[in-house]
Every structure is written in structure tokens, then in C-alpha cells.
Amino acid sequence: MEHPEHPDRRGGHPAPVDPVDHVAQIQAEWQRERPDLDVSPQAVIGRLHRLADRLTAELTLVYQRYGLGEGEFDVLAALRRAGAPYERAPGELAAHTMVTTGAMTKRIDRLERAGLVTRRPAEDDRRGRVVALTDAGRRLIDEAFTAHMRNEHRLLAHLAPEEAAALQTLLTAWQTRLDGTGQPDRRAG
Amino acid sequence: MEHPEHPDRRGGHPAPVDPVDHVAQIQAEWQRERPDLDVSPQAVIGRLHRLADRLTAELTLVYQRYGLGEGEFDVLAALRRAGAPYERAPGELAAHTMVTTGAMTKRIDRLERAGLVTRRPAEDDRRGRVVALTDAGRRLIDEAFTAHMRNEHRLLAHLAPEEAAALQTLLTAWQTRLDGTGQPDRRAG
DNA sequence: CGCGGGTAGCTTCCAAGGAAGCTATATTGT
DNA sequence: ACAATATAGCTTCCTTGGAAGCTACCCGCG
């Protein structure tokens, strides 16, 4: 992406934080180099991406404290959310967590190896499998999710309640409208 | 992540779009399973992530039309933005695009193989390298970036100007405040 | 009954980055 | 001047996920 989007990435030695505002600086450079273009959308889209990545980095820190990656956390949370007996089919989990079934197989592999979930054949349909939280898995995700929510509260506390509400409204509206008429950009090159 | 966050991922057969609102549904499930927790932050953080991923998916479609991945697009854009003669050190590019130098090496490898950039030794410092856009590279990124901005305008058009302005303000404020006092969550377990 | 399409999960291969360490070179302190 | 340290870029290995295809199985229809 041109993106001013793309903030942090996670580990490594990526860039220092910019003084004024990285996005604004990038816009200024484009202004100079391509004065024929109106790059104002970057102010929103770029900042949205940077903020999302920043938040992801913060949230990931908590997952790590429980020995979980983002993917594993997602799966455990989906199982926990399902309610007792904390079971779901791999395909359901894939749909819920928005990854392919191939990715889900591997996530479950890791969680099974860690003793956090079990995998057994489904009773009715012999193609099917049932993934279930173990006791250790349930305890872990309960603890981790509690810490996760504490963390989200902490992050959101930087906004006043009205600001948070306004932000939520705008995000929901945009998403909804994209889903609505949202045909992708079809124009040729 | 628990995340309602994590929307689309890109390819594959990930989930269908939810009727009401995936995030709201997830919140309801947590409400039932963990009534002791206040999961309201998900309404903002989750939706932010879902929207960001949705936008990324849309933007990626345009990069693909030019045979570029997100990473390559970023590098070409950073070089183009630098102004004539469109040159930068790999380390600068890594910092600008927020990836490790290892990732940058590989991006440059791909772009060099595609004939879009060249790599030559720096004159003053014999450890250094200079990455430069080729003519083909400059032409491609100029075209691709034009299409990219068209695409961003299209996506942003779903918001009224005042909405976009308000969103930008909120995003900037949040990011700034996170950068400010933003110590990560240090609490143990 | 048994054939054929659809479905579920898994496997294999590939793409892209991060982490850490290597090499060559620059810089700094004494 | 020269040893110690820092820096630039690259390389290697590992992780994660997507793409596509495989196998087993279900189910409906002739």
C-alpha cells in the first residue's frame, strides 16, 4: 500500500515514531510530487490502518503473556463463546474467525499440541470433527480474555465516552455502506 | 484476537457477511457467557479492525491489477515520493514502510527481478546500497498510484464530508494520545 | 440400489515477514 | 594508529496463512 497505512508491524526494529504525524508528512510529499492528485483520503484511510495496527500490537502483547498467538486466541475465544460444552466444528471456527479451513487446521494442530483443545470424530457425520476446549483450555482463555478486556478498556480509555460513541457510529456506518452497494473497483488498469 | 476484529482475510472461502452485525452478535455471546465482563470496547476496537481489513482487501485489488503486492506497492510509492532521482537506501525504505530490513531485502529482490528498481553500491559508504526506480518502475507506480487514489476516493465517498472529517479527527486524536502516555499494559498475568 | 454432486477436513506447496545472526565497513575512544 | 563498538545490508530459519487439490463421506435422484 502506499498507505501511510501500515504502522507498526510487530517485532523487529521498525521505525521510530514520527514527530508531527507520519501520515501528514507523506501527504505533503505526494502533494509536492503529484500535485495533480488529491490525496486527502489518505488522511482517513491511512490513519485508520495505522491505528488498527497500533492497537493490534498492543493487544498482541497480552496474548503473548498467555503463550498464545492472535490466531490461537481467536479460536479459543470462539469456543468459549459457544458456551458449554465449548465445542465447535472446524468449519464453523474457520467461518467465525475469518480464515480458510486450511489455516484453521493448523491452528487447531497447535492448540491440540498445547493440550488446550481436543479433536474427536463427530457422531452423526463421519466426515466431521468436533473441536472442544479442554479444562486447561477453558481456564486459560477465561484468564486471557479477562486480561484482554482489561487491555481493551485501557486502550479505549484514551477517548472520552462521547468520542468513543461517535467513533463507533462512524465505523459502523462506513462498514454498513461498504457492505451495501459496495462493488469493488472494476475499472481496468 | 478475540476480536470481532479480523474481518476478511483476503482470498479463500472465508465467511459470509453477517446479517445484523457480526460484532454485535459476538458481544451478545460474551454477555451471556461472561456477564462479569464489560465487553463494550469491542464495539469500537472490533469494528475498527474489521473495517481496516475490509479496506485493505479493497485496496489490494488495485495493487494486483498492476502485478504488485502490498509490500511492493509500498516500496515503489516510497521511492516515488522521494522525488527525482527516486532513490533511497534500503534502511530508509524499511523505516518508511515499517518493516524489518530483512523483509525489505526480499521486497527489493522481487522488485529488482521484475525490473522495477535497481540496486547499486552507495558512493560514500561502502556498506551502503542505493535502490532506485527504473523508468518502468516510475511509470508503473505513477499509474498504479493514480488508480489507488481513485480507489480511495471511491471508498471514502461512502462517508459525507463532515463524517470523514469527524472520523479523521477522532482517529488522529486517539493515535496521538496512545503515542503520548501510551505505556503498554504491564500488569502480570 | 448405486451413481454423482456437494461437503468436511486435511495435506501440500507457496508466499511473505519476523528474529537473529553474519560480514563488511565506519566511527569512536584512547 | 588501532582496538572496540556500531551500523548497513543480507542471509537463514521459522512462523503463519492462503490456494488448491485430495479423500472420505453424505444425500438425493434415477
Radius of gyration of chain A, rounded?
21 Å
What structural category characterises the helix and strand content of chain A? mainly alpha
What letter string, H or E per element, gives the SSE order of chain A?
HHHEHHEEHH
CATH architecture assignment name of the largest domain in chain A: Orthogonal Bundle
Cα end-to-end separation of chain A: 16 Å
Quaternary structure classification: homodimer
| Strand composition percent of chain A | 5-15%
The largest β sheet of chain A comes out as: 3 strands, antiparallel
Could you tell me the mean pLDDT of chain A?
A: 86
Overall spatial form of chain A: elongated
Please tally the helical runs of chain A, counting DSSP H or I stretches of 4 or more residues. 7
Domains of chain A, number: 2
Any idea of the CATH class of the largest domain in chain A?
Mainly Alpha
Please count the beta strands of chain A (DSSP E, at least 2 residues each).
3
Biggest interface, residues from each chain: A-B, 103 and 102 residues
**Strand order of the biggest β-sheet of chain A:** 1-3-2
- The CATH topology label of the largest domain in chain A is Arc Repressor Mutant, subunit A
CATH homologous superfamily descriptor of the largest domain in chain A: Winged helix-like DNA-binding domain superfamily/Winged helix DNA-binding domain
Percent helix of chain A, as a range, is: 55-70%
